[in-house]
Amino acid sequence: MTKTTPSAQSGTDAEEDLPLGTTRQFSRMHKWLKRGIVTCLVVLVIEGSMTVPALAIYYGWPTLSLTQICDEFMKVRWADDNAECDSPYPIKGPPFGGAPEGAGRDTAKDDWGVQPKSGLDRIGFRELVRHKEEREARQKAQAQAAAQERAPAPEVPAGGPQN
Q1: In sequence order, what are the residues at sequence separation of 6 or more whose Cβ sits closer than 8 angstroms to the Cβ of residue 68?
Q2: Which of 127, 117, 149, 8 is nearest to 59 (CA)?
Q3: pTM over 0.85
Q4: What number of other Cβ atoms are within 10 A of residue 135's Cβ?
Q5: Phi then psi dihedrals of residue 115, to 5 deg
Q6: Distance between CA atoms of 99 and 105, rounded to whole angstroms?
Q7: How far is CA 75 from CA 53, 55, 119, in A?
């Protein structure tokens, strides 16, 4: 009759509980690696879910819609007040077909060369809202000036104004 000691039994049980490919010597390390990796993945998911809302608020979301924010980025990027985002984006658009996004545009302020340098100013907190309001005010003033030039001057009677 053979006697088994409790330590011998626990050693075999511990090896049976180990994940496939893990030896007893490295089981603690694998356990902590797994915990660390799962923690990092959870944090990345939380960070990713907060990035778009945080950036949208930073660039002016309650005042501007996401499409308007995209339009303002295009206007700043190309230094062109007529640039707009394609919404909804065409399925056959770049990179799957068609001309590239900036094909035929030469309004950007970048210095191209071996090491390109951006000519764009940094966009600050809710600055796209200010850009849009300034552009709309400028366009409204231009439209009013054009309307005044086209409108005939009011004719005053020869005797002068009568009261």
Answers
A1: 132
A2: 127
A3: no
A4: 13
A5: -120, 90
A6: 12
A7: 22, 18, 13
For residue 4, the model assigns a pLDDT of 52
Instruction: Determine contact, residues 87/67, Cβ cutoff 8 Å.
Output: yes
Cα separation values, 70 from 12, 13, 83, 132, Å: 62, 60, 10, 12
The answer, yes or no, to whether the previous bond of 95 is cis (omega within 30 of 0) is yes
105: number of CA atoms within 13 Å, CB side? 19
Q: What is the pLDDT of residue 14?
A: 45
The CA-to-CA distance between both ends of the chain, in Å, stands at: 133
Angle among Cα 98, 103, 106 to the nearest 5 degrees reads: 170
Which residues partner with 3 through β-bridges?
none
Q: Classify 21 in phi/psi space as left (phi over 0), alpha (psi -120 to 50) or beta.
A: left
Extract the tokens encoding 28: 């603690």
Helix (H), strand (E), coil (C) string for 1-60: CCCCCHHHHHHHHHHHHCCCCCCHHHHHHHHHHHHHHHHHHHHHHHHHHHHHHHHHHHHC
Distance separating alpha carbons of residues 24 and 131, to the nearest angstrom? 63
User: Residue 160: what pLDDT?
Assistant: 60
pLDDT at 15 > cutoff 70? no
